[in-house]
Design a protein that fits this description.
The complex is a heterodimer.
Chain A (H helix, E strand, L loop, with lengths): L3 E10 L2 E11 L4 E5 L6 H8 L7 E9 L5 E5 L5 H7 L1 E3 L12 H8 L16 H20 L15 H13 L5 E5 L7 H13 L6 E5 L3 H7 L2 E6 L2 E6 L1 H5 L2 H8 L1 H11 L1
Parallel strand pairs in A: 3-8, 3-9, 6-7, 7-8
Antiparallel strand pairs in A: 1-2, 1-4, 4-5, 9-10
Helix pairs in contact in A: 3-4, 3-5, 9-10
Chain B lengths: L1 H8 L1 H12 L6 H26 L8 H18 L3 H20 L8 H20 L1 H4 L5 E2 L5 E2 L2 E2 L3 H23 L2 H11 L1 H6 L4 H27 L1 E2 L6 H14 L4 H18 L3 H5 L1 H15 L8 H22 L1
Antiparallel strand pairs in B: 1-4, 2-3
Helix pairs in contact in B: 2-8, 3-8, 3-11, 3-12, 3-13, 4-5, 4-6, 4-11, 5-11, 8-11, 9-11, 12-13, 12-15
Chain lengths: 271, 331
């Protein structure tokens, strides 16, 4: 049984087909990576999964278990962002998008907001329900900060944190909504090799918190190290899918990244 | 420990509130009147700060809600001779409704278009008041509104009126703080910080815009209704764009999202012109001075709640050099 199925997903912006008939499956407990040259449509896929774009065609299906343990399919195609979050998808952004003027703790609390069940009216004055939820949420937020190694920075402004910690805070914020599927959009961008190494272990450890991770990344070493499955996109279409070693040796992938000449030279070189 | 932190956070508010409360012991009638108008401005400006500092929406037409509050109570008194305490609920309902109405276009527009819409909304409200003669008496205005009548007790003494206003100031401050420290306030700040990230966290933006506009309008309306009873007359010319701009200046001087700061801003901008009256030239051109102050304060970017002015200035100045140092780091 898979965790999330993407079936024939297509989106057109006017005449441009940004994602073309893309299908793949995410397995539970695994890291699925989406790679491809710049402009291949990777972020567009995440934007469709999280409800920022409405696909022109195709389906996004989340597989869940009901109370009896039977598998049910939840169609989240074209759902709004808030519905998607409630159903268990949470994302980070390519260029960090933290709530810059808010503290690290507040950032986590906003990530948690759909689980804090008191409304806007009860926000206006102190009452038992509000106090109970706020206390509980703050405790839980501190735990999440601890998980991402930021417990000392709880009351610091998000943008005053060093870059690597901002990345972690953003991931922590995504975790705060208790997602089933975590979507990470280039988490290693702008990091040095040491930070990247630490990050890859950190991402692995996240599998204890969520059912599955969809990772977009340009750093091939990181991708090959931690992915269980790789889906390669080029010009919006899937050109290859498989385990890291399978993808590495796929001619079409090499062509997409290095161009045709690269393939030929490679072939002659091996002769 | 927790109490000292709380005290520290609200220290500025406590200082202003206490000194305002004891001030009538030392003031003459003229000075008391200035203090009352400053207190009204505090409520009005705090309501705008909720919209601007927390909700992230710059409204250039906040005077609309003030005038709706003032006219609601004036019109009700004129036509039905109802006292202030009876008019209070209609004031809240009608200004709240007006706020809700103005929030509706916000589902489709952002940025500078919001400014245009709020500005035109205030103009529309003003035109309606000017021309709806049977109800608002148009340009003539409504004259002879009695002082506040609280369940049969008429506040004849201006001191009593002042303390009623201060009660509303304190209530407004407390409610604003409750709001900011709640889920509602947090989500509003998140939206104004980064709407896209807020959406990704599952926040539906539009309902929050509706809520913040409505609450903000209600508080502005309360200030307006008190104003009508203070001045005993209302006329459309009072509620022009200058009133909105003055209010924005108060908020910006005090710091966006900083409610105690707003109170300082209101006090400053209400007392300064009275002081400047003796210098005819300065008084005449005070709006230019406001503009200058606004530009300077915005440049200092004193907009983060809790940021010390000194830190804000140093951040701002270091930002001037940041670009260079960032380039140096890259190399």
């Amino acid at each position: 049984m898979s965790l999330l199925s993407v079936k024939n997903l297509t989106i057109r912006f006017g005449g441009l087909v940004a994602v073309d008939n893309l299908s793949f499956e995410m397995e539970p407990g695994k890291i699925t990576s989406l790679i491809g040259p710049n402009g291949a449509g990777k972020t567009t896929v995440i934007n469709m999964l999280t409800g920022f774009y409405t696909p022109t065609g195709g389906k996004i299906i989340l597989h869940e278990k009901d109370e009896k343990g039977n598998e049910v399919e939840v169609d989240i195609t074209g759902n709004s962002t808030d519905q998607v979050v409630k159903k268990g998808l949470s994302r980070t952004f390519q260029n960090i998008r933290l709530f810059s003027n808010m503290t690290a703790l507040d950032n986590i609390l906003v990530g948690m907001q759909h689980r804090i069940e008191y409304g806007s009216f009860l926000s206006l004055f102190p009452n038992g329900k509000k106090n109970k939820w706020e206390k509980q949420a703050r405790e839980e937020a501190m735990e999440i900060l601890k998980k991402v190694g930021l417990e000392d920075a709880a009351n610091e402004r998000a943008t005053s944190l060093p870059y690597g910690k901002q990345r972690k805070l953003e991931i922590g914020r995504a975790l705060a909504s208790h997602p089933k599927v975590l979507l990470l959009d280039e988490p290693a961008a702008g990091m040095n090799p040491a930070e990247k190494k630490e990050l890859s272990q950190f991402i692995r450890s996240l599998l204890n918190e969520v059912d599955g991770i969809l990772l977009i990344e340009h750093d091939m070493k990181l991708i090959m190290d931690i992915s269980d499955k790789i889906v390669v996109l080029n010009h919006g279409a899937k050109i290859c899918e498989g385990k890291p070693e399978e993808v590495q040796n796929n001619e079409e992938v090499i062509e997409a990244y290095l161009g045709k000449k690269g393939v030929q030279r490679n072939v002659t070189g091996s002769k | 420990m927790k109490n000292t932190a709380l005290l520290k956070k609200h220290l500025l508010f406590i200082i202003i509130a206490v000194s305002m409360l004891v001030a009538p012991l030392f003031t003459n009638a003229y000075q008391l009147r200035i203090l009352i108008s400053a207190a009204l401005a505090m409520i009005f400006a705090m309501s705008l700060n909720l919209l601007m500092g927390i909700g992230g929406t710059v409204s250039f037409g906040h005077a609309a809600f003030y005038s709706i509050g003032a006219y609601t109570t004036a019109v009700l008194w004129y036509h039905f001779k109802t006292p202030y305490s009876t008019n209070f609920i209609p004031v809240i309902l009608i200004t709240g409704l007006a706020g809700l109405l103005l929030s509706l276009p916000m589902s489709r527009i952002t940025g500078r278009y919001v400014t245009i819409i709020t500005l035109s909304f205030a103009e529309i409200v003003n035109l309606i008041i000017k021309n709806w003669d049977p109800v608002t008496l148009g340009q003539m205005g409504i004259v002879g509104i009695p002082s506040v009548n609280l369940f049969g007790h008429v506040l004849k003494d201006k001191r009593e009126f002042f303390y009623l206003t201060m009660l509303f100031v304190i209530l407004t401050y407390i409610i604003m703080n409750w709001l900011v420290d709640s889920k509602l306030g947090r989500n509003l700040r998140a939206i104004s910080n980064d709407a896209i990230a807020a959406e990704a966290m599952g926040i539906k933006i539009f309902p929050y815009k509706v809520i913040v506009f409505t609450i903000s309008a209600i508080f502005a309306g309360i200030a307006g209704s008190l104003y009508a009873h203070l001045m005993s007359y209302v006329e459309p010319a009072t509620f022009n764009a200058n009133l909105s701009f003055e209010c924005i200046s108060m908020v910006v001087i005090g710091g966006l999202g900083n409610f105690a700061g707003t109170m300082v801003g209101a006090l400053f901008l209400k007392i300064l012109p009275e002081y400047l009256r003796q210098f005819e030239f300065l008084f005449k051109y005070r709006m230019i001075a406001y503009g200058l102050v606004l530009v300077i304060v915005m440049w200092i970017n004193h907009s983060i709640p809790g940021t010390k002015l000194k830190n804000a200035i140093s951040t701002r100045i270091s930002a001037l050099f940041r670009k260079k140092s960032a380039e140096a780091e890259e190399v």
